[in-house]
């Protein structure tokens, strides 16, 4: 009977849990709102295979003495994080960065159109006191428009640069500058 129990495949109890930021984390300890996952080795233990290093050990360049095999939860977390990074990079590359770039252009075009409209109204001013007052009003509107447009364009450019930097940090957006 003991031999039968030893021959049975080992099963690890793993929990899929939400972290504070709402991302899914895989761990070996139960959590509130988590789901249980039963995980067992695909082909059993292979002593000839080198141990997989935990991310911290691999980054530190740990050798055999410092090698700590990754737990199943750590392997699943590493795959999940890589998948989330890939998804975020694709989202930024195909939607986020191009949309932010388009928003910069749209802001410029809208501001130019509004400025052209105000300039075209200058021609309707009469050469009298009412016309002078009207021209002063247009000048004030133009100045306010320039200030607002400069702030909006700066905000859109900052958004674009932030998204582009994030995308490049994830290894994408090589065709953007």
Low-confidence stretches: 1-9
Number of strands: 3
Helix content: 55-70%
Q: Write down the Rg.
A: 30 Å
For the largest sheet, list the strands in their spatial order. Answer: 2-1-3
* Major sheet details: 3 strands, antiparallel
The topology string of helices and strands comes to: HEEEHHH
Per the principal axes of the C-alpha atoms, what is the gross shape?
A: rod-shaped
- Structural class by helix and strand composition: mainly alpha
Protein name: DUF4124 domain-containing protein
Organism: Ottowia pentelensis
Pfam families: DUF4124 (PF13511)
Domain DUF4124: 2-55
Topology, element by element:
Layout: H1 2-7, E1 12-18, E2 24-27, E3 35-39, H2 55-59, H3 72-122, H4 129-169
Antiparallel strand pairs: 1-2, 1-3
Description:
It is a single chain. By secondary structure, this protein is mainly alpha-helical. It has a domain at 96-169. The protein is 58% helix and 9% strand. The protein contains 4 helices and 3 strands. The chain has a 3-stranded antiparallel sheet with strand order 2-1-3. β1 and β2 (24-27) form a beta hairpin. α3 (72-122) runs antiparallel to α4. The longest helix has 51 residues, at 72-122. Mean pLDDT is 78; it is low at 1-9.
Outline:
With 177 residues, the protein is mostly helical.
Summary tags:
DUF4124 domain-containing protein, mainly alpha, 4 helices, 3-stranded antiparallel β-sheet, DUF4124, 58% helix, 177 residues, 9% strand
């Amino acid at each position: 009977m003991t031999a039968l129990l030893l021959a049975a495949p080992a099963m690890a109890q793993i929990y899929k849990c939400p972290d504070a930021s709402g991302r899914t984390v895989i761990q070996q300890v139960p959590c509130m709102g988590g789901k249980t996952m039963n995980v067992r080795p695909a082909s059993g233990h292979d002593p000839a295979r080198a141990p997989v290093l935990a991310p911290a050990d691999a980054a530190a360049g740990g050798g055999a003495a410092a090698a700590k095999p990754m737990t199943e939860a750590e392997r699943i977390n590493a795959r999940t994080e890589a998948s989330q990074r890939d998804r975020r990079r694709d989202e930024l590359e195909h939607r986020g960065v191009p949309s932010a770039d388009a928003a910069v252009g749209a802001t410029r075009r809208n501001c130019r159109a509004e400025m052209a409209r105000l300039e075209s109204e200058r021609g309707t001013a009469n050469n009298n006191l009412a016309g002078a007052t009207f021209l002063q009003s247009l000048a004030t509107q133009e100045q306010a428009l320039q200030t607002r447009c400069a702030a909006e364009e700066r905000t859109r450019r900052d958004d674009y640069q932030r998204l582009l930097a994030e995308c490049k940090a994830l290894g994408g957006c090589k065709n953007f500058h």
